[in-house]
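Why do we care about 3D structure at all? Because function follows from shape, and shape follows, mostly, from sequence. That is the central idea of this module. The next example makes it concrete: a single protein chain, its amino acid sequence, and then its structure expressed as tokens.
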Amino acid sequence: MAIIQGSQEAEAGVVQVKDLVLGAKIAENASLEEWKSRPAQVEVPRADLVATVRAMLDDPQ
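And the structure:
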């Protein structure tokens, strides 16, 4: 996982959470439509960061 928070995200109270393993898997074989349907990066409120990361780690993909 990568957690990204630039100045715009900090002002908005959000973070970007990127699943690097899922992103690499999708990039290997997916069509553009498949890639878009399973985004490897999501924006979530800072308060939801831990729950989001746990859910991503628990998802067997």
